[in-house]
Automatic annotation (TrEMBL):
EC top class named in words: oxidoreductase
Transmembrane spans: none
Cofactor(s) essential for the protein: Zn(2+)
Keywords: Amino-acid biosynthesis, Histidine biosynthesis, Metal-binding, NAD, Oxidoreductase, Zinc
Family: Belongs to the histidinol dehydrogenase family.
Zinc keyword on record: yes
Protein name: Histidinol dehydrogenase
Active-site residues per Swiss-Prot or TrEMBL entry: 327 (proton acceptor), 328 (proton acceptor)
Binding site for NAD(+): 129, 191, 214
Record-linked PANTHER family: HISTIDINE BIOSYNTHESIS TRIFUNCTIONAL PROTEIN (PTHR21256:SF2), HISTIDINOL DEHYDROGENASE HDH (PTHR21256)
Positions annotated to bind substrate: 237, 259, 262, 328, 361, 415, 420
EC number: 1.1.1.23
Binding site for Zn(2+): 259, 262, 361, 420
Amino acid sequence: MRIQHLDQTTRQNLLEDLLKRSPNQYGEYEQGVLEILDAVRKEKDKALFDYTEKFDHAKIDAETLRVTEEEIEEAYRLVDPDLVRIIRKALENIRAYHEKQRQYSWFDSRPDGTILGQKVTPLKRVGVYVPGGKAVYPSSVLMNIVPAKVAGVEEIVMVTPPGPNGKVAPNTLVAAREAGADVIYKVGGAQAVGALAYGTESIPKVDKIVGPGNIYVALAKKAVYGHVSIDAIAGPSEILVIADDSANPRYVAADLLSQAEHDELASAILVTTSETLAKEVSDQVETFVQELSRGEIIQKSLDRYGYILVAETMEEAIDTANEIASEHLEIQTRNPYEVMTKIRNAGAIFIGEYSSEPLGDYFAGPNHVLPTNGTAKFFSPLSVDDFIKKSSIISYSKDALYKVHEDIEAFAAAEQLTAHANSVKVRFEEE
């Protein structure tokens, strides 16, 4: 991995480099995505079937679009029972964590007859996109469905691309059943996003679409925002490790590569105050790349977006981490909790040398759907909050309104909205 001394120029060049990975930079794909969405809006099921045959090389129709109970039962026979057991253990942790995020309606009544409050209502129908193709991610199934179930969503509609045989990966089906998906459709890509956003003869329109996908899925979600809500525009995976000379270079290198193996656009960055550690981590990375099965992808990722930055002070390292606002942030220092208190921007923070990033991906409980490409400065991980909406409650008695009606009328008059003022005034015109 390239080693650079951290200064203002290095930091600025790095930030500009990382921004190239944003889905917002891939405008050349947008027209194709818009054409797919337009076809789905107009032709509905027919467009889904045609695009599935074109892109996934699978023939589906109205009879085979929906995953059947028999297919789910077959999936359980094909999946290793040990994996089912592990999925259930992870599910328990994920559910327990998200249960703590639940919000409840509240009401505040006062002696003057005023009642104010907030009504919390789960979304009625949510669409969950699950990637297929080259890799299968049952962990993403759990992370997207569980918070929706905890929130109380009435219907969870899952879409995922089929293989050429017209079937969905067994691991995906088992995870979906365990997590609580209500219905699963064999369709992926931008066409699946369009179906969820607009509705077709077979797939109902949803209120919100969540879940990761490739650039076409990301751009499709961006395009349909407004017709439906979305979670976020997900970019490539990324990890940043803050470490000092107390860190284990082998652990740091292994953790950096855990994200670099996702794809060639993934980013892996070490910011350290130790030049010795920097060199040791670089050496360990070279060794691992030769050993790991996805070494070619890892190497391309590191060549493009892998950095080891040597900082003069820990404060400088922390400032850089806050500026990058990484999806995953590990702290491997002598005083990791002290460093953690100074972190403002990160999707998920892993504290200490035994809190490796895959712990969050699979098992600990916090959601692994996280803000990327610097959006951790203003976005949060997927949570129960993403599957609820809030309504304000206002109730005034006549006496309560009488005390303030002149103030309201004066405020409305100041904005030259006489109908607003009149709406209050008519209630007291006989007095």
